[in-house]
């Protein structure tokens, strides 16, 4: 029995080391400012950590640490497959497809931060499927000690073209995402985008130790079914989750002031404040057992020759957890 136990432990260690070694093999870069340390996966069509077509390939945050707290990580238990739509860590952004409805079968439509996709013969767009990329565009990456910049350029995709620039910067105890989208094509670009945070505060399970705070009083579009409860401007979980739940929230206004929410864990004290500089068009709260994800959607538009920009910041802080409140 003892030998079997030792053999099991050896196999487990080998599996953990193997998975860690596999993830370390993907192109990545570390940045630090002495307070926050972050690791990011780099866009790479041949060897990248993420090669599916749902999410923007740039600025994929693998991990971030501040004052001994961890904020992001691998939220899913299955073996990693770069071509699976949600096999990714956060923060990471998803844009609605551009030009899909007007494209005929065989024509190109655009996923910003991914490239040009040849439209197959299908009745509707499949958000959770991975399409074939007809043109991955051109990626350029620059970095400094506490920042990294990604530039993606795409042209001649059924009249659509763009230069998309994202900078991930550390500022004090914050991680900041700065974006610029320049329309280099002949057709206007109109899309929505949200940042899928995949918060994993100290790897704590989603449950009563978590609270999500808003500057407005959130109201759920459908029943919360006893999973969570709105309490004033907060949403609290009343039980530890065993399955994924998604809630659409209303109650926010028409200015960027309401794009300001906090996720706090009252067991470990880890907390993060997320703010954007654009008004929200929609808000979801998606929560499986492993991650708490407020999703703030914003509208993005750029006419040919014009550009637009937006910013999202993540301020890491601590809450008093001495008495679990």
Categorize the overall geometry. globular
Q: Output the helix-strand order.
A: HEEEEEEEEEEEEEEEEEEEEEEE
Q: Tell me the helix content.
A: under 10%
Task: Please state the average pLDDT score.
Answer: 92
Number of separate structural domains: 2
Distance between the termini: 45 Å
What fraction of residues sit in β-strands? Answer: 35-45%
Main traits of this protein?
325 residues, mainly beta, ten-stranded antiparallel sheet, 7% helix, globular
Notes on the structure:
The protein has 325 residues and is mostly beta strands. The protein folds into two domains: 2-167 and 181-189, no CATH class; 196-318, no CATH class. Helices cover 7% and strands 44% of the residues. The model is unreliable at 1-20 (pLDDT under 50).
Q: What is the element layout, followed by pairings?
A:
Layout lengths: L1 H23 L3 E5 L3 E6 L18 E7 L2 E2 L21 E4 L12 E4 L3 E4 L14 E3 L2 E6 L3 E11 L2 E12 L2 E10 L5 E8 L13 E4 L5 E2 L7 E4 L2 E4 L7 E6 L9 E6 L4 E7 L5 E6 L5 E10 L4 E12 L7
Antiparallel strand pairs: 1-2, 2-3, 3-4, 5-13, 6-7, 7-8, 9-10, 10-11, 11-12, 12-23, 13-22, 14-17, 14-19, 15-18, 16-17, 18-21, 19-20, 20-23, 21-22
Summarize the structure.
By secondary structure, the protein is mostly beta strands.
């Amino acid at each position: 029995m003892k030998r079997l136990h030792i053999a099991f432990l050896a196999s487990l260690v080998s599996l953990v080391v193997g998975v860690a070694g596999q993830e370390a093999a993907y192109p990545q870069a570390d940045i630090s400012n002495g307070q926050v340390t972050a690791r990011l996966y780099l866009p790479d069509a041949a060897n990248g950590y993420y090669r599916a077509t749902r999410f923007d390939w740039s600025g994929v945050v693998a991990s971030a640490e501040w004052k001994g707290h961890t904020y992001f990580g691998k939220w899913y238990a299955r073996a990693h497959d770069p071509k699976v739509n949600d096999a990714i860590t956060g923060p990471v952004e998803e844009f609605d497809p551009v030009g899909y409805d007007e494209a005929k079968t065989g024509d190109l439509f655009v996923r910003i931060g991914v490239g040009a996709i040849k439209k197959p013969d299908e009745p509707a767009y499949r958000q959770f499927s991975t399409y074939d990329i007809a043109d991955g565009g051109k990626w350029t990456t620059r970095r400094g000690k506490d920042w990294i910049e990604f530039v993606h350029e795409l042209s001649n995709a059924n009249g659509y073209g763009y230069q998309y620039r994202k900078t991930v910067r550390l500022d004090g105890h914050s991680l900041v995402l700065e974006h610029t989208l320049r329309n280099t094509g002949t057709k206007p670009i109109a899309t929505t985008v949200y940042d899928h945070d995949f918060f994993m505060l100290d790897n704590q399970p989603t449950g009563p130790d978590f609270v999500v705070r808003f500057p407005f009083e959130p109201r759920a579009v459908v029943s919360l079914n006893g999973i969570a409860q709105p309490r004033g401007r907060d949403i609290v979980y009343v039980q530890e989750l065993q399955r994924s739940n998604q809630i659409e929230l209303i109650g926010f206004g028409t200015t960027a002031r309401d794009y300001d929410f906090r996720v706090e864990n009252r067991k470990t004290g880890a907390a993060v404040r997320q703010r954007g500089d654009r008004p929200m068009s929609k808000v979801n709260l998606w929560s499986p057992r492993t991650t708490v994800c407020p999703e703030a959607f914003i509208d993005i538009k750029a006419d040919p020759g014009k550009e637009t920009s937006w910013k999202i910041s993540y301020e890491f802080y601590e809450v008093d957890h001495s008495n679990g409140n």
